[in-house]
Design brief:
By secondary structure, this protein is of the alpha/beta class. Helix 3 packs antiparallel against helix 4 (53-67). Keywords: Autophagy, Endoplasmic reticulum, Glycoprotein, Membrane, Signal, Transmembrane, Transmembrane helix.
Length: 765
Amino acid sequence: LLLAALGAQAAAGDFDPYRVLGVGRSSSQADIKKAYKRLAREWHPDKNKDPGAEDKFIQISKAYEILSNEEKRANFDRYGDAGESQGYSQHQHRQFHHFHEGFYFDESFFHFPFNSERRDTSDEKYLLHFSHYVNEIVPDSFKKPYLIKITSDWCFSCIHIEPVWKEVAQELEALGVGIGVVHAGYERRLAHHLGAHSTPSLLGLINGKITFFHNAVIRENLRQFVENLLPGNLVEKITDKNYIRFLSNWKKENKPHVLLFDHMPVVPLLYKLTAFAYRDYLSFGYVYVGLRGTEELSSQYNINVYTPTMMIFKEHIDRPADVVQARDMKKQLIDDFLSQNKFLMVARLTSQRLFQELCPVKKSHRQRKHCVVLLTGEGDKFAKAYEAFLTFAVANTKDTLKFVHIYNDRQPEFADALLMDEEKYQGKSAVVILERRNSAGKIAYKTLEEAWQGSKEDNFILLDLLDQLRTDPGLLSSETVLADLNDELAPMFLIRWLYSMLDYILDCWDSLFHSNWREMMPLLSLLFSALFILFGTVIVQAFSDSSDARDSPPSEKEENDAKTEKNDASFSKESNSRIPKKGFVEVTELTDINYNSNLVRLRPGHMNVVLILSNSTKTILLQKFALEVYTFTGSSSLHFSFLSLDKHREWLEYLLEFAQDAAPIPNQYDKHFLERDYTGYVLALNGHKKYFCLFKPHRSADEGGTLGSCEDYDSSLHTEARGKSSCSPGSRSIKNKLHKLSFWMERLLEGSLQRFYIPSWPALD
């Protein structure tokens, strides 16, 4: 067994993604993607009937997964493996780990023929891939729920539930439930995306939302699980007391209403699935004919209580628009019946989506479809015109004509574009025949000369125009561009927000009792972080209030000193539009503790201006640095820090190697290498884009005639209350290093300084 395992390990190590895709090691991502698409189309198991097509397709997918990821590709080029670990010991550990998993659980590692040949073929037609799931299954879950099984090879529990799974999958698929199978060994990315950390796992998908199954795997539990995925308000129970109200809602909801008469006490799952699939077009009700209180309903519509009957009601609730009866209602029969009755006879245009479905764009001369639109208003005043238009539409049902109506006050832009605000249509109804020319809103149309009153003369005129339109498409002589319709039935923002909050709370509640700890860790982390911040803020605020209460009010002398300091610095404020928000400069030390937050993870657009100093020059340089950058503290994107040269010389010299022209680094074997003085250097570090700008201190010989006396720049920051400042020759030469730093800061904000890019920020040891 050990020799066989080692031989399989060597065979697995020979996998070359470049050879599988037929590309070179220097190929670009575009070439790799092009080769993958070509091979995937050629070897896809649904198109290629070769016995080895499935294994070949898996190899192609694995090769593209490695080469499309720059990090995995670099690891493969370096170590011959796409793993993320580096180094000999870690690489060996990873090989052993893969060997252990492959030997016991992963068929793809060994390709044992006795297992691959006997693999159950009933699940092959349900196998899902990541791209197929994202691009097709998730959008389709808004029309029907999906039941998905996560399985793998050498999974004995998967074998145990296989008989139940086969039976339930066949039964639910016939009812309209989508079935999917994910092989965790081949589709690890999809299994991780679904949140399945063990096999077997069963989950439901509806409206893009995933719900895990946690009960015993038996037929009744699985059926109930799928039924619980569906919303609870899809089908309304109808009796003699509420059927008139239910059918009369067609005008408010702008939908036909469907009634199913059956002798089952509960609503069949097939009917619930159908109601979910057509919920945007139809409203559904269920009548239990064996229940007391449904006799009047059954007798009025002459229902056979022994045969399931489905009726569709449109504008007239006293008689159904269409009926179908069958002892065994099949999904195909119901779909054919409902797809032909999705809209009212004269539907109201309430949204742009409905307008596009009822009045599609002309694709060819043989597929011309015209819409006859009644532009009317609400209320009894317009009822007669609407009834006459409805009668005309019922008598002239043709595939090439769609009759619709619209309320002028709810869609004013649509009405104004067609009627041009003509006075003869004010307060009256009008009829327009239109044809959509493209999806951008361009239409050709013709408006009836006179307002629509519903008289016989109006009917003859409209009928004559429609007859002429068959032979003369040029009858629609006017053209215009329509804006998108308002969605009249869309819920208010507050209601949508409440529904979203309710869904989120239910998800959290379900996760709290059913999800494992790995899935709960992000939520728990967020909860404890919020509690820590809340209580921490309260405690800090309590201590801050108590300390402020103990502080005595400032004396008159301190107030006068503060006013004098503000007056001394007023020249900087007036000469610069960046008004400082504080009366001081906040400069923090850059250490290994705050290194990530102050540099590596600095927000985009922010920069950290760092002063290099030593222990002996710390006080003098910080005073001069504060004076030079004070006028720039009003910018919220600038942060100011200092770095100790005594502690972090190696870090600084590593950065300066990328700026050789601006600050040449001496040879490391030079005896003066460790004596080089970098105090006074200033670096502007952009942590997000990984570059820095460099300020070199000026030599004292060049500064003598321009710097002036020490008191000239000490007076603006030091007052008499702070004591007497030092003006020795040594301190003057140190301060002179930061001369003209303010001009350099101006150029930094202008973006005219040279930038030195680095591959990554080194660690600050």
